[in-house]
């Protein structure tokens, strides 16, 4: 996975969650699984190839932390949906905790890429 693919893979989560909230995404997303930061393609890269290549860089543990926090936020959105809190979930994705965690994760990927390039 390259850095652009990492950003793209990460960005797909917003679309997926918006679909879950709207009822157009029929994917069965378990909050307990989504909360794990090593199950998605980006997480597998972070804990695999990226760890071997970039673990010594100060930007790497920041990315690990931001990505893990992001997955906690994504799981919280799914819990809101399951509890029928659709407006809260929608707001969380659009401009709340999930939105901020997503931006922070993308910025962490960009900072790591900048250090590497």
Keywords:
elongated; 7 helices; Four Helix Bundle (Hemerythrin (Met), subunit A); single chain; mainly alpha; 117 residues
Structure description:
It is a single chain. The protein has helices at residues 3-22, 31-34, 41-46, 49-54, 59-82, 86-95, 97-116. By secondary structure, it is an all-alpha fold. It has a single domain (3-116), classed as Four Helix Bundle (Hemerythrin (Met), subunit A) (Up-down Bundle), CATH 1.20.120.30. Helix 1 (3-22) packs parallel to helix 5 (59-82). The two termini are 15 Å apart.
What's this entry about, in short?
By secondary structure, the protein is an all-alpha fold. The protein has seven helices and no strands.
> How many H/I helices?
7
CATH top level assignment: Mainly Alpha
Q: Low-confidence spans: pLDDT under 50, at least 5 residues?
A: none
SS-derived structural category: mainly alpha
| Corresponding CATH superfamily | Aspartate receptor, ligand-binding domain
Mean model confidence by pLDDT = 95
Order of helices and strands: HHHHHHH
Radius of gyration: 14 Å
Number of domains: 1
* Beta-strand residue percentage: under 5%
What characteristic shape results from the CA principal axes?
Answer: elongated
Number of strands: 0
Tell me the CATH topology.
Four Helix Bundle (Hemerythrin (Met), subunit A)
Named at the architecture level, the CATH assignment is Up-down Bundle
Q: Major beta sheet, specifics?
A: none
Quaternary state of this entry equals: single chain
Helix content: over 70%
């Amino acid at each position: 996975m390259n850095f652009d693919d990492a950003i793209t893979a990460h960005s797909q989560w917003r679309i997926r969650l918006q679909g879950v909230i709207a009822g157009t995404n029929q994917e069965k997303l378990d909050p307990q699984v989504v909360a794990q930061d090593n199950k998605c393609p980006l997480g597998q890269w972070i804990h695999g190839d990226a760890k071997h290549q970039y673990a010594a860089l100060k930007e790497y543990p920041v990315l690990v932390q931001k990505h893990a926090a992001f997955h906690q936020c994504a799981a919280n959105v799914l819990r809101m949906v399951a509890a029928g809190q659709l407006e809260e979930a929608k707001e969380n994705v659009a401009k709340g905790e999930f939105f901020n965690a997503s931006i922070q994760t993308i910025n962490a990927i960009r900072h790591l890429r900048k250090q590497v390039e």
